[in-house]
Design brief:
Elements lengths: L4 H17 L7 E7 L3 H17 L2 E7 L5 H12 L6 E4 L9 H7 L11 H8 L9 H12 L8 E5 L6 H9 L8 E5 L6 H7 L2 E4 L16 E5 L3 E4 L7 E4 L4 H4 L3 E4 L6 H22 L5
Parallel strand pairs: 1-2, 1-3, 4-5, 4-6, 6-7, 7-10
Antiparallel strand pairs: 8-9
Helix pairs in contact: 1-10, 2-10, 6-7, 6-10
Length: 294
């Protein structure tokens, strides 16, 4: 079965829109910070702000020069931290090489960290407290499987890739002792020995390594669940653009062996944006409960 992440994300966005429309207070607000003119980042920021508009979330784009200093960026974030009208702050990565992304992430108010990257929110996730902000892509994958009625309890899940954005938090969510968790988790990376064998032992494979069509059919057992997080451009003379977008999975050959598989595009990507909207609404709702929004 091909999991339609686009359809599931659209359903979630409609739910978010209905919830926002039920409030008589100001709408939720997300501030998106883009430093420089990195073309892919510009595309991602536009998609996120368009998604905000579609559900009724107000978005503010802060377009800043690539040659700004780290201290200047920290000052901009501090302004957003102190603005009571802003519920979420997202700093689009990558940043220019002279700016330390960790220092920037640590400076965002954890209560506005809708990307879920601040150590405070990561720490809450690791100890099993799910009331903070969870990283958008791993959370999107978790919700994707839950809404596809995939029970991962007791299954062997292999996460290929150990990034702070996907791999590590994904493993943490899969192993939590709660619904949507309770898997036996293995993390593989570039130094893992005999990766094909590890793959063939897995009931669930989640791959996020940025290598086009890396996962081949002979690496996947019959009936496996495969979640492809990769987004790669490869040359394709048959396309008007001259390229096509593919994942980290050799989809055409792997799909027939799978009980469930996500396509690229149309799988995990839309869920990441849906979870960003979810986290922004969550921040807003927490402020409502605290009487900070009238």
């Amino acid at each position: 079965m091909i999991i339609d992440g686009k359809k599931i994300a659209e359903d979630i966005q409609q739910e978010i829109k209905a919830r926002i429309q039920s409030y008589s207070t100001r709408p939720p607000c997300l501030a998106v910070v883009l430093v420089g003119e990195h073309p892919p980042s510009q595309i991602y920021v536009n998609r996120k702000t368009q998604a905000c508009a579609a559900v009724g979330i107000r978005s503010i784009k802060k377009l800043l020069p690539a040659n700004m200093t780290e201290e200047e960026l920290l000052a901009e974030i501090e302004i957003l931290n102190n603005d009571p009208q802003i519920d979420g702050i997202l700093v689009q990565l990558p940043l220019p090489p002279h700016i330390n992304p960790n220092r920037i992430t640590y400076h965002i108010n954890p209560n506005k960290d809708v990307d879920g990257f601040h150590p405070f929110n990561v720490g809450k996730m690791l100890i099993g407290e799910m009331d903070g902000f969870l990283p958008c892509t791993p959370l999107g994958i978790k919700v994707l499987m839950e809404r596809s009625a995939i029970d991962i309890t007791g299954k062997h899940a292999l996460v290929i890739g150990r990034s702070n954005i996907v791999g590590k938090p994904m493993a943490a969510l899969l192993m939590q002792g709660m619904p949507g968790g309770n898997a036996t988790v293995t993390i593989a990376h570039r130094y893992s020995i005999d990766l094909p064998t590890l793959c063939r032992l897995a009931d669930i494979i989640i791959i996020a390594i940025g290598q086009p069509k890396f996962l081949k059919a002979d690496m996947v057992k019959e009936g496996a669940i495969v979640i492809d997080v990769g987004i790669n451009k490869i040359e394709d003379a048959t396309k008007k653009s001259g390229y096509q977008i593919v994942g980290d999975v050799d989809f055409e050959n792997v799909a027939p062996k799978c009980s469930y598989i996500t396509p690229v595009p149309g799988g995990v990507g839309p869920m990441t944006i849906a979870m960003l909207l979810h986290n922004t609404l969550l921040s807003y709702q927490l402020k409502l409960k605290q009487g900070l929004i009238s």
